[in-house]
Amino acid sequence: MWEFRSMMFWRAVFAEFFGTMFFVFFGMGAALRWTSGPYHVFHTALCFGFAAATLIQSIGHISGGHINPAVTFAYLVGSQMSFSRAFFYICAQCLGAMAGAAALYGVTPNNMRGTLALNTLQPGMSLGMATTVEVFLTLQLVVCVFAVTDERRNGRLGSAALSIGFSITMGHLMGMYYTGAGMNPARSFAPAVIMRNFINHWVYWVGPMIGGAMGAILYDFILFPRMRDLSERLATLKGSRPPEAEKQQETRGEPIELKTQTL
C-alpha cells in the first residue's frame, strides 16, 4: 500500500503516539487526589479539555489529532481513512497512553498514586447504564470533531481545537459523576494495564466505540451527508489511493490549504 511507503504516514502514527502520551500524562495527573475532601471535578475536566485542545492544535496538521481510538473508529465508519491507517493509529494511541501512564506512575509518590485515575463505575451504576452514558459522551464529542473539522464548511468559525477541548470538558463535567468520563478507550486502557485492574473495563471500549460510530453515521450520513459513491468509499477504506491534499504535499512539499465550498 502507498501508506507504508509514505514518510508522512509514519510521522502521523508517531504524532498520535506522542499526542496521546501527553494527553494521558497531563489529564490523569490532574485527576490524582493529592488532598482529602471533595473531588475536584471542575479542575480535572478543565485539564483534560485544555490538554486535548493544546495537543490537537499541535499535531492536528500532521495526523488529524485524533488521540482517541473512538474518534479514529468514527473516521473509519465514515469512510474517511483506510483500515491500515486506523489500525496503526489505534495501536499508537494505546501505546502512547500506556507510556504516559507509566511516566505518571514513575513521577508520582507511592502514597499519592491511588488507582492512578482508573475509570470506575460509580455506586448504583449498572453496566447498561454506564455503557449508555459512555455512548452519549462520545457521541457528542465525535459530532463536534466532525463538524468543526469539516472542510466543506463555509468559513472558519473559531478554533476547531478549542471547540473539541470544550466538548471534552463538557463530557467530563457530567460523566465523571457516572463513569469517570472515559470517552477515550486509550485513556481508560492505560491505567487498567498499569494497575492490573480490568473490572468492567469492556464498558470503556464498547460504549465509546458505539458512540463514535453513531456520531459518524449521524453527521456524515444524516446531518451533512458526503455525496460519495461506494467505489470511492471502498478505495479510501482499502488505502488504494492517497487523499488529494496529502498527495500534493508529498510531491510538492507545499503547505496544505483546505478548500471550502458554499453550503
UniProtKB/TrEMBL annotation:
Domain of life per record: Eukaryota
Compositionally biased intervals (Basic and acidic residues): 241-257
Catalytic reaction annotation: H2O(in) = H2O(out)
Topological type in the membrane: Multi-pass membrane protein
InterPro entries xref list: Aquaporin-like, Aquaporin_transptr, MIP, MIP_CS
Gene3D superfamilies recorded: Glycerol uptake facilitator protein (1.20.1080.10)
GO molecular function: channel activity; structural constituent of eye lens; water transmembrane transporter activity
Subcellular location per the Swiss-Prot or TrEMBL entry: Cell junction; Cell membrane
Keywords (A to Z) from UniProt: Cell junction, Cell membrane, Eye lens protein, Membrane, Transmembrane, Transmembrane helix, Transport
GO cellular component, one term: plasma membrane
NCBIfam families per record: MIP (TIGR00861)
Purpose: Aquaporins form homotetrameric transmembrane channels, with each monomer independently mediating water transport across the plasma membrane along its osmotic gradient. Specifically expressed in lens fiber cells, this aquaporin is crucial for maintaining lens water homeostasis and transparency. Beyond water permeability, it also acts as a cell-to-cell adhesion molecule, forming thin junctions between lens fiber cells that are essential for maintaining the ordered structure and transparency of the lens.
Protein name according to UniProt: Lens fiber major intrinsic protein
The gene coding this protein: LOC107705750
